[in-house]
Amino acid sequence: MGEVKLMKGNEVLAEAAIRCGCDGYFGYPITPQSEVMETLMAREPWNETGMVVLQAESEVAAINMVYGAAATGKKVMTSSSSPGISLMSEGISYIAGAELPCLLVNVQRGGPGLGTIQPSQADYFQTVKGGGHGDYKLIVLAPSSVQEMNDFVDLGFELAFKYRNPAMILADGAIGQMMEKVELADSKPRWTKEEVVEKNGSWATTGKPATRKKNIVTSLEMDSGRMEQNNLRFQDKYRKMEENEVRYEAFQCDDAEFILVAFGTCSRVCQKTVEMARAKGLKVGLLRPITLYPFPNKIIKELARKALGFLSIEMSAGQMVEDIKLAVYEAGSNARVDYFGRMGGIIPTPTEVVEALEKIFSWELSYGVKRSY
Amino acid sequence: MTEEMIIAGFGGQGVLSMGKILAYSGIMEDKEVTWFPSYGPEMRGGTANVTVIVSDTRISSPILQEFDTAIILNQQSMDKFEEHVKPGGTLLYDPNGITHPPTRTDINIFKVEATRTAVEMGNPKVFNMIVFGSYLKVRPILSLDNVEKGLQKSLPDRYHNLIPLNLQAIQKGQEIVEDVQLV
Amino acid sequence: MEIQEIIKPENLVYQKTPLLNDDVMHYCPGCSHGVVHKLLAELIEEMDLQEKTIGVAPVGCSVFAYNYIDIDWQEAAHGRAPAVATGIARINPDNFVFTYQGDGDLASIGTAEIMHACNRGENILVIFINNGIYGMTGGQMAPTTLEGMVTSTTPNGRNVDLNGYPMKITNLIAQLPGTSYVTRQSVHTAAAVRKCKRSIKKAIQNVLDKKGTSFVEVVSTCNSGWKMTPVDSNKWMEENMIPYYPLGDMKDTIKGEHSDR
Fold it and tell me: Between A146-163 and A224-244, two packed helices, what is the crossing angle to 10 degrees?
């Protein structure tokens, strides 16, 4: 068993990065995630593992430093919060277009604009549907506990290198600021220069030896035919992710007539909601997507065969609910899909969610069958 | 066992650090813990509160509408959280600065003269540990051994010389807590 | 003499460095880019840096620089080359990293990145091609476009009341304590080419010696954008550009130390 500590989600990100052999972090301060860089700077990992930590002049610069460092085949990351991620979006598109692995973290706050520093999940669309320009996808992991903030750093890097694609941890201010018991991973050494060349020398800017052709890291291709081929290759890669990397947790879904769907902080709220609803005799379960992209469509389709309704619980105006509707539609099910959520930095309480469930599904609760329209 | 509690008062009263010591003590007792603060500008001098959950099993929501226990250290927090104590739950407060004491009869109410006692002990900083002691007396969910270990874990090494003083304050809090009978 | 006679190896008087490959350059005839590419490639070969060098290409005419010099390259977003180079140089301090940027890239959209990379004293070389115009996008105004100069977005000449003043960004860069060697050169005569090569060589050596950021501006021509013949462009540059952007070293020191000029 690894070292057990009480830590904030943001602090754990920093600690996990050092322990998993991360080579570099480039960032810019923004609430509510500034503790990530603060923790790194206080830990001075350059003395311990050789990890580089640099405060950039802006999020724009930070993501481009990540772009440069990631091109060398090493493990690099950045973290920010919603407005900062918007600024980074151009660079993220370049990184995806140049097929570079790296780890990004968004500890979301409420928007739009400067918005609020309180937690939110309103960057779901931005994260899973693109954000920057062009047809690209991020591998998106949604932690719901401080422990998962730890675990997903290593997992994020693993998936990023497996697919040569940026991975993002989509957290929110609540998980970033929350302290929980966490079991830290044992430290892994950083890759040696030789290991980097062996693993990634076929594409990375490791310096051109006489034995290979030059490596060019770029997203640019002026020939439309070849650019289309690039896009088709990306799409193949995304289909592979969809086949192999879906992760979710189903909680009391087996006999459930109503399925709450929630990720991150909202999934924690909904776990309590399930307990409260079950105590009232309602057959409620919780599906918690862990990967938001690839999205767990398959399990939703399976559940849609018998469930009367799905309720997406979000700290947004209802974004993930669209993906649930798509899956239910594809399943040919007439289960009803609805949404309840709060915005502006407010987290729905378990009591509110129970009330919303009873109100929205009052017909189904009364008659035990799907309402037809 | 699951204890869901809120600790609320002014910034600077040691609300967050009391919660942290409580959470660390819980870890020492092999329990799951969650510490969820209100964060933002109000941290700097305004009201501060933290939700602490200690449980034998995986912890669900850090966002709660009802608490097993509320520790209330100023009037604003009393106004906000008295009604959110579960029926049969516990409310512990320091009467210093409280102009409208709690009135509910369906909960267990305790008070501790922690501000005054801390001044009497000559160190206002032990205020939060006096309150913590009172809490441990009325809700004995953690052993004192593990609280001592929790203190060691959560205080930086340079403050370890203060652990005996903190333990003394916890002891004092256990002695002076009063059961408030509302009839 | 027959051609076969002339091209015998023993008669060779000049040879292109093997680092410069045989791809046909997309630059217009008369453009300064080709000369500066050649100088860079020659120096990387002469200083035996091929395995250590990572080039960062910009957005602008030199976006395809990576096609011509046989080293590992990365293509940056518009203006962000200094941040990209920072990432590479920080994570692999043993590499020799350079950016190659035009005036729009460096002095307009990328001002924040160039200022801060230079201010941090990143151990990188910056090659700054200043031809006073946006070549790639078809001849629009650049931050360095001279007052009164006609471009497609200043069809009646640059009006400083409307567009502000031509920016001497290299002078600003020289003020930053992170920079080590800051110079302004040109490549419009054989003598200027030789001098420019010496400057770039010194700049590369500074980077290898970790003295801080070295910055070489090359005042250049864009005969297509300027709508002149290459010869006229060189003349126009001498008469108009160089008086406003005078050639010479502005700073030669080690980062953190005061400039001796």
Answer: 140
Query: What span, in angstroms and rounded, lies between the C-alpha atoms of B173 and C9?
Result: 97
- Residues paired with residue A104 on neighbouring β-strands, in sequence order: A78, A168
Query: Which residue in C has a C-alpha nearest to residue A222's C-alpha?
Result: C64
Q: Which residue has the tokens 């790194």?
A: A40
Q: Please give the interface size between A and B, counted as residue pairs whose CB atoms are below 8 Å apart.
A: 75
**Residues A98, C95: C-beta atoms closer than 8 Å:** no
Q: What 3-state class would DSSP assign to C205?
A: helix
Q: How many residues does chain A have?
A: 373
Which 290-349 residues of chain A touch chain B by CB within 8 A?
A: 347-349
Best CA proximity match to A147, nearest among A123, A167, A171, A121: A171
Model pLDDT for residues A117-170, shown as the tens digit of each residue:
999 999 999 999 979 999 999 999 999 999 999 999 999 999 999 999 999 999
Domains of chain C: 28-152+160-252 (3.40.50.970)
A and C touch per CB criterion (3+ pairs under 8 A): yes
Handedness of CA A269, A271, A277, A283 (dihedral sign): positive
What b/e string do you get for B19-45 counting C-beta neighbours within 10 Å, with b at 16 or more? bbbbbbbbbbbebbbbbbbbbbeeeee
Provide the token pair at B48: 């501060």
Structure tokens given for A173: 């201010």
Question: pLDDT (tens digit, 9 = 90+) per residue, A217-248?
Answer: 999 999 999 999 999 999 999 999 999 999 99
Q: Which CATH superfamily is domain B2-180 in?
A: Pyruvate-ferredoxin oxidoreductase, PFOR, domain III (3.40.920.10)
Using CA atoms, how far apart are residues A366 and B2, in angstroms rounded to an integer? Answer: 33
Place of tokens 């027959």: C2
In chain A, which residues have their Cβ closer than 8 Å to the Cβ of C66?
A: 214, 216, 218
